[in-house]
Design brief:
There is one protein chain. This protein is an alpha/beta fold. It has one domain: Rossmann fold, CATH 3.40.50. Helices cover 38% and strands 15% of the residues. It contains five helices and five strands. A five-stranded parallel beta sheet has the order 2-1-3-4-5, sandwiched between helices. Helix 1 packs parallel to helix 5. The protein is globular, with a radius of gyration of 16 Å.
């Protein structure tokens, strides 16, 4: 059983990463191997809308000169995918959406490669916009035929400066419960695999 937590923040060790690391700690405690991917350390270009992902034999993106393929391979290898983003003007970061747009197109053009993987989003806001961002990311999971467990609230938390998110006790508890539910669900369905082996 493997999980990947993808941090869409351009800031290393910021509030989004703090929450993702909390998820990792809980999942690892449950025996699930985890990897953190920081998009701040990688370059993923936006989708070019070329449509080649539906025609290539290797079932991937035609753009080869960035880090997309490395991250997408990690996503395909994982049973659980968690994504986190700070709120930028009521939206997820461009770094994260560039990855998710391309991953979604490649998946859907190739018989839903992400189908029935487990996961879900986390959004961190200074003050507002978190519900828009959470919904934006949640829609990506749902349209890719993935399974998203709930929590005691939406997976959102508040903080601006590094570490401030730790002051949001309810947000921290909500994200912790989300991670616990992911581990519980993974055990219940036997490894997060679909009936056809994906």
């Amino acid at each position: 059983m493997k999980a990947v937590a993808i941090c869409g923040s351009p800031r290393i060790e910021g509030n989004t990463e703090i929450l993702l690391n909390q998820c990792i700690e809980i999942l690892e405690r449950e025996g699930i191997a985890c990897e953190l991917v920081r998009l701040a350390e990688k370059t993923v270009s936006p989708c070019r809308a070329c449509g080649a992902c539906g025609r290539l034999k290797d079932k991937t993106c035609a753009v080869k000169e960035d880090a997309f393929h490395e991250v997408f391979a990690t996503m395909l290898d994982a049973d659980i995918i968690i994504v986190g983003s700070p709120v930028y003007f009521g939206s997820a970061t461009p770094q994260l959406m560039a990855l998710l747009d391309r991953a979604g197109y490649v998946s859907k053009q190739n018989n839903n490669l992400l189908s029935r993987k487990l996961g879900g989003p986390i959004a961190v806001a200074r003050r507002a916009g978190q519900n828009f961002t959470y919904a934006q990311l949640l829609f990506w999971f749902l349209i890719n035929d993935m399974i998203v467990p709930g929590s005691t609230y939406w997976n959102i938390a508040f903080g601006r400066e590094k570490g401030e998110v730790n002051n949001d006790a309810e947000g921290v508890r909500t994200v912790a419960r989300f991670a616990e539910n992911l581990a519980w669900l993974a055990r219940k369905i036997g490894g997060g695999q679909s009936a056809d082996g994906r």
